[in-house]
Write a sequence for this structure.
């Protein structure tokens, strides 16, 4: 939405005041404009720094990660983007990322929803292992298949493992299989329904949305948004702490942005060379 109209719309809604004088002007509000969806992968975590498979292990941001996402918040503010609602995972590296962004944009008051469906992909029995040592043990090809193939999951953990979600109180009330791990495909199978059922209604209601999440949960989401093929998504890496801005049309289909890195339609905010270097860094975690 146009900034002024958007803020009038959201302030009036917030105060419970009737916003649009009649249904026709409300429709005009909603059709004359684009919907903005901002995706942010968390900043560098302590285990990104140590090069360990992380998945659902709840590690914090590193000092550099904090800096990255403070900068991400500033970039969102400078771009004039004013999200109305926010979503994140149950993991502190993404939650803290969102907090920094909302602080920098002076939007700490907007509604925030946390959902496990936006978590990082569960890395099964690889969680906690050093990525390079895993390459040395199993070979580069095998590890690349575990990291980036669409549907080959890493080895599972069972209920006796500290990494099984059944042993973590935050997942109480959710029923996970005894043998648990996730591929990008199964990650997509929980991210996409969550997006459709919980985030799409917000976008359709005229809200602009920010999602702070993870490398692989966001790979799943952009695969869905941009209809990216299984082979192509294997090559796609998402940099830490870098806002990725989608503009969606009335059917919530992405509108290709100028400067978008193919195959994405959204554009990254910030120094484009530095972003390319960050993407390369993610790729090279297993050389
Ligand atoms: O370890 C992880 O959970 C993820 C993201 O940090 O790693 P990768 O990029 O190897 O999928």
């Amino acid at each position: 939405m146009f900034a002024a109209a958007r803020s009038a719309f959201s302030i009036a809604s917030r105060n419970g005041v009737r916003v649009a004088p009649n249904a026709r002007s409300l429709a005009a509000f909603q059709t004359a404009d684009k919907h903005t969806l901002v995706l942010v992968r968390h900043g560098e975590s302590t285990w990104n720094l140590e090069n360990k498979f992380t998945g659902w292990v709840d590690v914090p941001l590193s000092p550099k990660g904090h800096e990255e996402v403070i900068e991400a918040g500033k970039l969102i503010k400078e771009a004039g983007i004013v999200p109305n609602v926010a979503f994140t995972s149950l993991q502190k590296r993404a939650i803290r990322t969102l907090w920094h962004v909302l602080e920098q944009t002076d939007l700490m008051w907007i509604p925030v929803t946390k959902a496990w469906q936006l978590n990082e992909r569960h890395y099964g029995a690889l969680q906690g292992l050093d990525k390079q040592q895993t390459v040395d043990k199993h070979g580069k090809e095998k590890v690349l298949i575990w990291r980036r193939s669409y549907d080959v999951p890493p080895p599972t953990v069972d209920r006796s493992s500290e990494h099984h979600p059944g042993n973590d109180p935050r997942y109480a009330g959710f029923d996970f299989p005894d043998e648990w791990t996730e591929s990008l495909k199964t990650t997509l199978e929980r991210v996409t329904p969550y997006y459709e059922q919980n985030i799409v209604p917000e976008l359709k209601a005229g809200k602009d949305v920010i999602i702070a999440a993870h490398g692989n949960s966001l790979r799943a989401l952009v695969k869905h948004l941009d209809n990216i093929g299984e082979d192509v998504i294997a090559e796609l890496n998402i940099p830490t702490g870098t806002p990725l801005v989608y503009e969606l049309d009335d059917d919530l289909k992405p509108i290709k942005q100028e400067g978008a890195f193919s195959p994405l339609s959204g554009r990254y905010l910030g120094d484009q060379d530095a972003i390319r270097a960050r993407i390369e860094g993610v790729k090279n975690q297993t050389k």
